[in-house]
Every structure is written in C-alpha cells, then in structure tokens.
Amino acid sequence: MTKKLFIKTYGCQMNVYDTERMIDVMAPEGYEETDTPEGADLVVLNTCHIREKAAEKVYSDIGRIRKMKEEKKQSGEEMVLAVGGCVAQAEGAEIMKRAPSVDMVFGPQTYHNLPKMVQKSLSLKSDGEKSRILDTDLAVDEKFNQLSKKDVKKKPTAFLTVQEGCDKFCTFCVVPYTRGSEFSRSVDDILKDAEKLANAGVVEVTLLGQNVNAFHGISPSGQEWGLPQLICELAKIEGFERIRYTTSHPHDMTDELLAVHRDVKECMPYLHLPVQAGSDKILKAMNRTHDSASYMEIIRKLREYRPDIALSGDFIVGFPGETDEDFEQTMELVRTVKYAQAYSFKYSPRPGTPASVMDNQIEEQVKSERLSRLQALLKEQQTEFNNSVIGKTLPVLVEAPGKTDNSVFGRSPYMQAVQISIDNAGFDDLQGKIVDVLIKEGGPFNIQGILAPGK
Ligand code: 5AD
Ligand code: SF4
C-alpha cells in the first residue's frame, strides 16, 4: 500500500535539492509525495536556520502538525513527524525537548538514512511509546554515495550539488556550523549524476554549493579540478544547453572562472555574487575577506568578458556597528553595480556566531528603515532591468504551465521569470524546449512575451 509523504521546504536551493533527494530515497519504501500534511504518514520539515524568523516558523508549524497527528492517531493510524535540515542540526536536542510530538530529528548530512530512521521510529518501544531518533552527524561523503544510486525524475531543469559546507566563517553566518566544513564531491560522481540528468531530459542544470566557486573536486586522472574545468566538462554533455551555478563568494571568483562566462556558451549570463555590504569597515567586521574595491573589480572584469551579464546579490543591513555612513556606502555600491535582482535582509543575530555577541547591535527600527530604503532601490533596478528587454527576442526555456490556460512559464538566460502567451501551441509541445520569445511587457517581478513570429 502506498504511503503519503509531505515535505515542507524552508530556505535555500540546497534545501530544495535535499527535499527532492528525500523523496527519491523514500520512493522505494512505498512513499508517494503529497501536497498537504493532513493525513500524511510521514511529515518532514526541511528547515532553515539562517535567520531567526525562519527558525521560529518551524516551532509554530510543529504545533499545527501536532494536531493533525493527534487526529490521525484517533483514527488508529500513525503519523511520523520529522524535523530535518539546519535547525535540526543546530538545535536538535532542544527540539526533542521542546516538542514531544516530534519523532525524529536529523541533520542535512544524514537524510540518506531516512528509510531506516522511519522504520526504527515506527517500531514500538516496550513501554508502548514510539522510538524517538536524533541523528545529526556531519560526515558528508557517505550521503552522496548513497544518493547517487537513485533514479531521477523527468524535468527540464535540475539542481546538482557539487560542493557542500563552508570554511569562510563570515561572523554573521550559521552555515559553517550547520552544514559543516567545505566538502567537494569527486568529478566522477558529479559526471555520473549529470549523465543521468541529461538522459532524463534535463536541459538546464544549476550546480549547487554553499561556496560553489570554492569547488575543488578530484578529477578522473587524480588531479584537483576547480569549477571552471567542471563547467567546461559538463558543457560537453549532450542535452545540457544551460549551466548555472550558485552561490559564489567573491574570494573564489578567479579570472579563469570569469572567463568561462565569455568562452562557454552554455554558461548563462547571470551571476549571484553576494557582497553583503558596501562599507569596508563592515566587510572586515563580517570577515568577508574582500573589500568593496575588489568586489567592484570582479564586476568590471565580468562585464568586460560578458557585457550583458545580469547580476544578483545578497545584502545585510544593520550589522553590528553599521553607521548611517556605512549604510550609505551600501546604497552607493548598489547604484554603481545596478543589479538585475537581489535579496536583502535585516541582520539577525544567530546563536553561536561571533557577530551575535558584538556589543554594538543596531536597533530594530533603524534596521527596518535601512532595509526599506535598500529594497526600494533594488526594486527600482530590477524593474529597470526587466524593462530593458522589452522589444527584444530572448531564448526562453519553457519549464511549467503558465498562470492562464493559454500561457506557459519559462526563464530567460538572465533568470527572469517569463510568462509566454501561446495561442497555437500547448504546454506539452513546448515543455523543455528553448523558444524565442518577443518580450512585450516588463515589470518588477516577471516579464511577458509572445512566441517570436516566424520561429
Ligand atoms: N542575518 C541576516 N542575513 C543573513 N544571511 C546569512 N546570515 C544572516 C544573518 N545572521 C544572509 C546573507 C547570505 C544569505 C543566504 O542570507 O546575505 O548571503
Ligand atoms: Fe555563510 Fe559566509 Fe560561508 Fe556564505 S561564505 S555560507 S555567508 S559563512
């Protein structure tokens, strides 16, 4: 009998990837994905610890799901409630204590053991209680070895994890503690996964890593390869027409990697390159290892190599000690770079990180004011970028049905979300194809177009 599995994914693309892999490992056990926790046999919360809000949400969700679990129990059935991901890694024991309804807590490096954990949880202890499990080991290679054996689903886009963890220790960030130290997969393993994806019809692959451009995997001939070599090799795979990678750190943005954007046509003209702040004093306090000038130099070179490249970034406002003047330097940097898209956040003190105990914390209200000014500027730039393609014909990869019956959804090379009107075609004819789209309308969030005439 098939069982129902519901996974809620919080946070970053790495978690989206992990969720897909959890679905893969549970499929042979008879678990099928469902889109509601109600009545599910296994509920997994794949959590994010990066900012306080994301972590808090988990406890309120546990409360909500506990009620569903009780209802299911009343009808004589069990629901296993599991908390995975980075909150689990950071606060595992506390979750077990605070939330008795949680049966299993497991970190991001142990979910290949999910079938065993579920089985163990369902086996009743002698006192009639279910077993409760905590597994937050941080060794990564075992996980990838297990996961690579699974088949992949048919979809035109896919994530492929090539690297995990981080040794950079930015003073605000929990990642080095929750995902562990930097680990690169071997080129052989990555190529095997890539071939599988290509055979399943994947056209666009996004290489994932918390510090993806620090990738240094062992090649088949035993040498160490960096991300540029890996991208060149992946570009040779038949079927892969688009390659992206995220997230990069300015520290590892080598000239060789910048040149890949010029020389490898499959490498898309889009780069997410977080700067975090524009003030050198703040960047130093953040332990970012780059200053604003070195960041700007990367951007200059990148634009020299690939003039149309679209840039994205992450920003933190209200880091401890940030003065009005420091913040103005962030605004100035944004005005100079002109981002196509960006993410911005109020600084959130995370337990165990050096910045959380710095004594010059910024008031919430100041953070909010700065954030809304920065976001207004970024929205203006994003709209400007989207409007700049009106009247142009862009190659768009069709990924999903659109908002209406006679439209489909896709992405431009610059990662813009595109709604395409289709009068004389169906989604099934277009899915996974790269079609030429004449852009008719822009806007802050997505752009609209029609299939280019005569194509
Ligand atoms: N507070 C606010 N934003 C943070 N980020 C990481 N840690 C924090 C924090 N403590 C942001 C950074 C990072 C993105 C993934 O999340 O901008 O690049
Ligand atoms: Fe966190 Fe910095 Fe590592 Fe990025 S580079 S994951 S922000 S510690």
Ligand kinds: 5'-deoxyadenosine, iron/sulfur cluster
Going by CATH, the architecture of the largest domain would be Alpha-Beta Horseshoe
Portion of residues in beta strands equals 15-25%
- The total domain count is 3
Shape: globular
User: Major sheet: order of its strands?
Assistant: 2-1-3-4-5-6
Helices, by number, come to 14
How would you explain this protein's 3D organization?
This protein has 455 residues and is α/β, with parallel strands linked by helices. The protein has three domains: 3-138, Rossmann fold, CATH 3.40.50.12160; 141-387, pyruvate-formate lyase- activating enzyme, CATH 3.80.30.20; 393-451, OB fold (Dihydrolipoamide Acetyltransferase, E2P), CATH 2.40.50. The chain is built from 14 helices and 21 strands. It has helices at 13-26, 52-74, 85-98, 114-122, 141-147, 175-178, 187-199, 227-235, 255-263, 280-285, 292-305, 324-337, 364-387, 427-430, and strands at 3-9, 31-33, 42-47, 80-84, 104-106, 133-135, 157-161, 163-164, 183-184, 204-208, 216-218, 224-226, 242-246, 270-272, 310-317, 341-346, 393-401, 407-411, 417-421, 434-441, 446-451. Strands 2-1-3-4-5-6 form a six-stranded parallel β-sheet, sandwiched between helices. Strand 18 and strand 19 (417-421) form a beta hairpin. Helix 9 packs parallel to helix 11 (292-305). The longest helix has 24 residues, at 364-387. It starts with a strand and ends with a strand. The mean pLDDT is 93. The structure holds 5'-deoxyadenosine and iron/sulfur cluster. Iron/sulfur cluster (SF4) binds at residues 166, 168-170, 173, 175-176, 210-211, 249.
